[in-house]
């Protein structure tokens, strides 16, 4: 298994979302979303809360089952198998296998509090990929080093700051060598002065050739790091495009009014 | 605190912020004697930002705490005195029977019943809890019904029912239903001994209660934990045992130990089956010797001993599972004692020097 992080391959990690719909009870939270993220691309999804950004992200690794449409990673459907003209829902085992190729970083970290930083990182490679414990440990230390936390390997999550916890969570997601990384508002639960240490790690990843799909409210960061910015509102994609276009010259009224509210005046580079 | 008042009422422009003690340490202490915080008058007094580092700390006086302490101490002394001096407690008889062979045998039976039905009860309870949390309506309702029945019937009735099962079903057999094929067949009365009836009754009853305790513990673990584990591709069984259960243990343990301690004494109910555990044994003895109270005291003291040992286990097991849940583990009583004797000073729990 090659470490794609150091050597950008950018040949894997194509995400194709096609007409995805999702209901929570009677409410339609995703109203036929279509979006393509190229291998090695960085898509940043922005929009008001309740617009369905997080739900969309969670459908990509099948944490949410879609009610319509489909999602494919490198041409392979997520959660289903095509047989004849039928879609068969995959058994749990196969879904888990698909998920090992899609790392996810949560808003409130969801680190396992009873395991140390290193144990958090080294757990999944052993049980989900069948690697040896010593190999997983070594790789875990390497990844903690990457996020600048090698010296805190034996600390429990509660002994770490929010920013450090989120960096451990990123290392944990990287441990499976995923093609795609999903970030669900990775800095929203952090104190302002801790936001940058996490964003810096993500910036590094953006250069690595892994496909990133990021939901965030950090507009400056989005502008920096994104290939594509996607603006969502009320379960639909209102507008998408290159960051310089969408931030400086949005076509839609809704996009313009949203940015005028969230981008502070100081931001005018 | 005249100095503070002076400073805040008239803050000099160049003086660093009065709330920052570090910034003013270069100012010499206002007075020679640390016990008298006198501030020199005049313009210099305004700048006399006091460094309290040399002051002696006088703890607040709490006279009512002392009154309470003395009253309680007197009460405890009175109880101890009456226990020691009232001859009707017959401590001699207690001592004589405490380690008698028959009593110790009864004790062993009690421990055996507790261990077996406790272990089986919690294993069955765990399965029932998972059933109750599953997505299958049938498993959910079977688990619910089990708990409902065993929690609503008196343990005494359950016990007698199991013991008299032979009256309801003469034979117990294992085979294919609706055929004549039998792998195993036996008379119920030979199969269900007093011991088997006792274990069966205690286990099933315990399972009904522990299922709810374990379910509560599992529910107390944040849903995000399961989500994160699934997102990492960790299989379901491993998710339960490695991620959820260790965290659920923190909520489960206190109540679980309550249950086990309850079970220790609950085993005394099997005296209705004439099963010679601790309580039945002392009954047999006092029926013969008529020394009722001293012998009940013997049983009681043994129950106290078992409970005390279990409480120690509980402390250390809970401590083990609080790993990661608290920033630093509290000192164990042993460590506290060692620290106390090492420093020869009372252990200060407030964290202040």
What does this entry look like structurally?
The complex is a heterodimer of chains A (269) and B (353). Chain A has 269 residues and is of the alpha/beta class. In chain A, 35% of the residues lie in helices and 25% in strands. Chain A has a six-stranded mixed beta sheet, sandwiched between helices. In chain A, strands 2-1-4-5 form a four-stranded antiparallel beta sheet, with helices on one face. In chain A, strands 6-7 form a two-stranded antiparallel ribbon. In chain A, a hairpin with a 2-residue loop joins strand 4 and strand 5. The longest helix of chain A is centred in the last third of the chain and has 15 residues, at 192-206. The model of chain A is unreliable at 1-8 (pLDDT under 50). Chain B has 353 residues and is mainly alpha-helical. Chain B has a domain at 90-173 and 181-325: Orthogonal Bundle (MetI-like fold). Chain B contains 15 helices and two strands. Chain B has helices spanning 2-9, 43-46, 63-85, 91-98, 101-133, 137-152, 155-163, 165-168, 188-191, 194-219, 223-231, 236-266, 278-289, 292-321, 333-343, and strands at residues 171-175, 182-187. The radius of gyration of chain B is 32 Å and the shape is flat. Mean pLDDT of chain B is 83; it is low at 1-37. The chains are: A alpha/beta (269), B mainly alpha (353).
Indicate the topology.
The complex is a heterodimer of chains A (269) and B (353).
Chain A: E1 15-24, E2 27-37, E3 42-46, H1 53-60, E4 68-73, E5 76-77, E6 80-83, E7 86-89, H2 92-99, E8 102-105, H3 117-129, H4 133-146, H5 162-174, E9 180-184, H6 192-206, E10 211-215, H7 219-225, E11 228-233, E12 236-241, H8 243-248, H9 253-262
Parallel strand pairs in A: 3-10, 3-11, 8-9, 9-10
Antiparallel strand pairs in A: 1-2, 1-4, 4-5, 6-7, 11-12
Helix pairs in contact in A: 3-4, 3-5, 4-5, 5-6
Chain B: H1 2-9, H2 43-46, H3 63-85, H4 91-98, H5 101-133, H6 137-152, H7 155-163, H8 165-168, E1 171-175, E2 182-187, H9 188-191, H10 194-219, H11 223-231, H12 236-266, H13 278-289, H14 292-321, H15 333-343
Antiparallel strand pairs in B: 1-2
């Amino acid at each position: 298994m090659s470490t794609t992080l150091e050597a950008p391959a950018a040949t894997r990690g194509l995400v194709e979302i096609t007409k995805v719909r999702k209901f929570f009870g009677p409410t339609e939270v995703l109203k036929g979303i279509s979006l393509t993220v190229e291998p090695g691309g960085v898509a940043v999804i922005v929009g008001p809360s309740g617009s369905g950004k997080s739900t969309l992200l969670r459908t990509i690794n099948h944490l949410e089952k879609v009610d319509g449409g489909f999602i494919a990673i490198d041409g392979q459907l997520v959660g289903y198998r095509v047989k004849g003209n039928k879609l068969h829902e995959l058994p749990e085992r196969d879904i888990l296998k698909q998920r090992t190729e899609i790392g996810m970083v949560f808003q409130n970290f969801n680190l396992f509090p009873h395991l140390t930083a290193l144990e958090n990182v080294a757990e999944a490679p052993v049980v989900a990929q069948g690697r040896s414990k010593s190999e997983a440990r070594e790789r875990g230390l390497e990844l903690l080093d990457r996020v600048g936390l090698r010296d805190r390997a034996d600390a429990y999550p509660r002994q770490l700051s929010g920013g450090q916890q989120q960096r451990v969570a990123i290392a944990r997601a990287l441990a499976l060598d995923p093609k795609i990384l999903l970030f669900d508002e990775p800095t929203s639960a952090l104190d302002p002065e801790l936001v940058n240490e996490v964003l810096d790690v993500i910036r590094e990843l953006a250069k690595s050739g892994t496909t990133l799909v990021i939901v965030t409210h950090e507009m400056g960061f989005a502008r920096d790091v994104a290939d594509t910015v996607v603006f969502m509102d009320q379960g639909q994609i209102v507008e998408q495009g290159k960051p310089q276009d969408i931030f400086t010259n949005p076509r839609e009224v809704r996009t313009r009014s949203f940015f005028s509210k969230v981008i502070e005046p100081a931001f005018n580079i | 605190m005249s100095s503070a008042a002076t400073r805040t009422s008239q803050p000099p422009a160049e003086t660093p912020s009065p709330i920052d003690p570090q910034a003013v340490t270069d100012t010499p202490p206002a007075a020679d004697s640390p016990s008298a915080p006198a501030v020199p008058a005049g313009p210099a007094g305004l700048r006399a930002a006091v460094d309290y580092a040399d002051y002696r700390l006088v703890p607040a006086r709490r006279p009512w705490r002392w009154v309470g302490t003395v009253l309680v101490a007197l009460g405890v002394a009175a109880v101890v005195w009456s226990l020691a001096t009232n001859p009707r407690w017959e401590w001699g008889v207690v001592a004589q029977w405490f380690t008698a062979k028959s009593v110790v045998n009864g004790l062993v039976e009690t421990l055996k019943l507790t261990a077996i039905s406790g272990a089986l009860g919690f294993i069955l309870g765990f399965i029932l809890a998972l059933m109750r949390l599953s997505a299958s309506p049938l498993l959910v309702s079977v688990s619910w019904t089990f708990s409902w029945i065993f929690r609503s019937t008196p343990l005494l009735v359950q016990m007698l029912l199991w013991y008299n099962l032979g009256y309801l079903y003469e034979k117990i057999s294992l085979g294919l239903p609706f055929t004549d094929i039998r792998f195993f067949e036996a008379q119920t009365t030979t199969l269900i001994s007093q011991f088997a009836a006792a274990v069966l009754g205690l286990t099933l009853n315990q399972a009904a209660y522990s299922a709810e305790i374990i379910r509560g513990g599992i529910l107390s673990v944040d849903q995000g934990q399961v989500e994160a584990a699934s997102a990492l591709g960790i299989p379901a069984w491993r998710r339960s045992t490695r991620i959820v259960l260790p965290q659920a243990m923190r909520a489960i343990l206190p109540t679980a130990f309550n249950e086990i301690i309850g079970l220790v004494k609950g085993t005394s109910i099997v005296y209705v089956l004439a099963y010679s555990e601790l309580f039945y044994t002392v009954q047999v003895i006092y029926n013969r010797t008529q020394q009722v109270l001293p012998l009940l005291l013997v049983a009681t003291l043994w129950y106290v001993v078992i409970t005390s040992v279990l409480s120690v286990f509980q402390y250390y097991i809970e401590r083990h599972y609080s790993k990661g849940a608290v920033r630093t583990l509290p000192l164990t009583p042993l460590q506290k004692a060692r620290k106390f004797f090492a420093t020869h000073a009372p252990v200060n729990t407030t964290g202040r020097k």
